[in-house]
Design goal:
This protein is mainly beta. The protein has helices spanning about 90-95, 150-155; strands spanning about 1-5, 5-15, 15-25, 30-35, 40-45, 55-60, 60-70, 120, 125-130, 135, 140-145. The chain has 2 domains: about 1-75, Histone H3 K4-specific methyltransferase SET7/9 N-terminal domain (Single Sheet), CATH 2.20.110; about 105-145, no CATH class. This is MORN repeat-containing protein 5.
């Protein structure tokens, strides 16, 4: 089923999304999870094109409780959020070890920063190349293909 540029894969009842399914928005954001009466309802996750994930328990299309995880694995915590808030833009290593002298900027949390090949993204255990959809380690050895996540891996 396709509506307003979005795509739905799953079962329907009376013309409305029902049960487990995948709903992809025109922006590329994908919802994987339970649906009821045409709305997100139950356990489900939003997978954002940049790699972030929002896992939640939904009630009639509204998240009742949930957790956002950034593409780099950092989990957002509403309480005691100590990472680059509106008042303190330091990296975690700068909070622990202090700021560097003027003129020697720290551009990442790692010091010295890893050299990231152009057009690639650091994913913790290696680099993701969006053109080849592969992850290689920091020595440029193949680690894995990066396909779409399965429903079971998203829900855990």
């Amino acid at each position: 089923m396709e509506v307003t540029g979005s795509r739905f894969c799953g079962s329907t009842e009376r013309g409305r999304m029902e049960g487990w399914g995948s709903y992809t928005l025109p922006t590329g954001t994908e919802y994987l999870g339970e649906l009821r009466d045409g709305a997100f309802h139950g356990r489900g996750a939003l997978l954002f094109p940049g790699g972030g994930t929002f896992r939640a328990v939904w009630h009639r299309g509204v998240p009742a409780e949930g957790k956002f995880t950034f593409a780099d694995g950092l989990e957002y915590a509403a309480e005691r959020w100590d990472y680059c808030d509106g008042y303190d833009r330091r990296f975690y290593t700068e909070i622990c070890s202090g700021l560097r002298p003027a003129g020697i900027s720290q551009l990442t949390n790692l010091d010295p920063p890893r050299k990231i090949p152009e057009g690639c993204y650091d994913c913790g255990d290696g680099f993701y190349n969006p053109n080849t959809r592969t992850v290689t380690d920091y020595e440029l050895r193949f680690l894995r293909n990066a396909g779409k996540p399965s429903v079971s891996s998203v829900m855990s």
